[in-house]
Design goal:
May play a role in ribosome biogenesis. By secondary structure, this protein is mainly alpha-helical. It has helices at about 1-35, 40, 50-55, 65-70, 75-105, 175-185, 200-210, 230-255, 265-295, 310-340, 345-375, 380-390, 435-445; strands at about 145-150, 160-165. Among the domains are: about 145-210, no CATH class; about 230-255 and about 380-410 and about 425-450, no CATH class. Helix 8 (about 230-255) packs parallel to helix 12 (about 380-390). The radius of gyration is 55 Å and the shape is flat. The model is unreliable at about 130-135, about 165-175 and about 180-190 (pLDDT under 50).
């Protein structure tokens, strides 16, 4: 092994020496070719330095030749001139050229004015004649007019827009009735005559398609009349009673405390535990006194329990039992899996049934949402408000049976017995409810006015905080 290793090293050395000899031989050949040549071939003397220096620089172009180069007409310029001659004619082109030359040679004048001598060409109030310089820079008079759109809008914003027109009469047709209305109020424009942008038209179309129908004034129930029918009157009394019951429940819930204190059982346990602690503390103090009198240190001894120690045979038996139990559980899992595979059809049937129920439920929810969306705003607003704020909801205005001059029907009365009519007249009817409250709640339910927030807050003494205006509070009532 060692002999073979020395042979490889020797071969590498021989190869390196041969490469070095080849390089030396090549250098000798190159040097001989240079050394054999005379100096005239190796070195060149520059005898015409001035001419060579002049040729090394590029001569600059003359300014006149450069100007002539840029003055040459381009092919596109020639085509433009021909097009002008065809459209304007020879006389028109000559006139246009003269005007351009005059504008190019005309000297620009600078306006210098002293303070206080400048004449204003803009009237702040839009008065005066435009020709005399008193108008708005010679432009036509424009009016900013409020226009009622008549479209449903977001809550808190009045359905109106501001329109800039040259004159209010331009938007009015020659109809005599419209002309009379325009003469009465010159600042009003009919919404159908207003030219709106495409963006506003799209927004209004989308808002109109998504807006809910509204009922400005809800018709009174038949049982709210001064001489109502018996059944209708009882129905309205039942509705009013349901609102009042919700109010009573809310008030009772608000008055009930969060907790009624500790129960009797808890108090008894706490008292018993405190007595035991006192007795234990007394016993501990007595034991400490006895121990202090006769103190004897005790040595700790480790108790070795050898009764529960099992033999090797018992341990092997437990091991075999655990292995058998594991194999039984494995066989049970395999059996359950095979049983589930056989019941694939039953599982597929259950899945289809669940999907059908989910689809029916989704259709039902969609139908309910569609009905809710089509439900007009402004109907039964008192019942809806009683679900949100049962304490502050107004009462449903309805006359009681005693106020109508009727006697309440007992169970012993005959069913066919007729109830006497009201003895009171229309002049003696007592009005109930508030028209202002009714209108305000109706406008809130129709999203025309925002409800007042923070009126029922519990105000405490401290730093005064400013109420910041929210979105939609800056509404206008027209």
């Amino acid at each position: 092994m060692g002999k073979k290793k020395n042979q490889t090293v020797r071969a590498k050395r021989i190869k390196a020496a041969a490469e070095a000899l080849e390089e030396q031989q090549a250098e000798r050949i190159v040097s001989k070719t240079v050394e054999s040549k005379p100096n005239q071939e190796l070195f060149v003397i520059d005898t015409d330095a001035a001419s060579n220096h002049a040729l090394s620089f590029i001569p600059k172009e003359d300014r006149t030749s450069r100007k002539k180069k840029f003055d040459k007409q381009h092919v596109s310029d020639v085509s433009k001139v021909k097009r002008l001659i065809d459209t304007l004619g020879k006389d028109g082109v000559e006139k246009l050229a003269k005007e351009g030359a005059a504008a190019a040679t005309k000297r620009r004048t600078r306006m210098r004015r002293t303070a206080g001598t400048a004449r204003t060409n803009f009237d702040l109030w839009g008065g005066g004649d435009a020709a005399s310089g008193g108008g708005n820079n010679g432009k036509k008079k424009r009016n900013i007019l409020p226009v009622m759109t008549g479209q449903s809008s977001a809550a808190g914003t009045a359905p109106m827009t501001l329109l800039a027109t040259d004159d209010a009469t331009n938007a009015i047709t020659n109809d005599p009735q419209e002309q009379i209305a325009h003469n009465i109020d010159k600042d009003a424009i009919h919404p159908s005559k207003v030219q709106l942008s495409n963006k506003v038209v799209k927004i209004r179309t989308l808002t109109k398609s998504l807006s809910k129908p509204t009922v400005p004034i809800e018709l009174a129930h038949g049982g709210q009349s001064y001489n109502p029918d018996e059944n209708q009157h009882q129905d309205v009394i039942g509705e009013a009673l349901s609102i009042e019951l919700k109010r009573e429940e809310a008030l009772a819930y608000r008055k009930t405390p969060i907790s009624n204190g500790l129960s009797k059982e808890t108090l008894a346990i706490m008292v018993h535990s405190s007595d035991e602690e006192d007795s234990d503390s007394d016993d501990d103090s007595d034991d400490e006194e006895k121990n202090n009198d006769s103190f004897q240190p005790r040595l700790k001894s480790k108790v070795i329990n050898r009764e529960n120690k099992k033999t090797r045979a018992q341990r092997n038996k437990q091991k075999r039992t655990r292995e058998e139990h594991a194999s039984i559980q494995q066989r049970k899992k395999q059996k359950t899996f095979l049983h589930e595979v056989n019941e694939a059809k039953l599982r597929a049937k259950e899945i289809k049934q669940e999907e059908r129920l989910q689809k029916e439920r989704a259709e039902y929810l969609k139908r309910v949402q569609e009905e809710k969306r089509k439900e007009p705003l402004g109907l039964n607003f008192l019942h809806k408000l009683s679900d949100v704020d049962p304490i502050h909801v107004p009462s449903l205005p309805v006359a009681l049976t005693s106020e109508l001059g009727r006697k309440e029907k007992d169970d012993d009365d005959d069913e066919n017995e007729t109830v006497p009519t009201a003895t009171t007249s229309l002049r003696k009817v007592r009005p109930k409810g508030s028209l202002l409250t009714d209108r305000s709640q109706s406008m809130i339910s129709r999203n025309m006015v925002n409800p007042k927030r923070g009126a029922n807050k519990f105000i405490v003494q401290g730093k005064k905080r400013t109420m910041k205006g929210g979105k939609g509070r800056e509404y206008l009532l027209i």
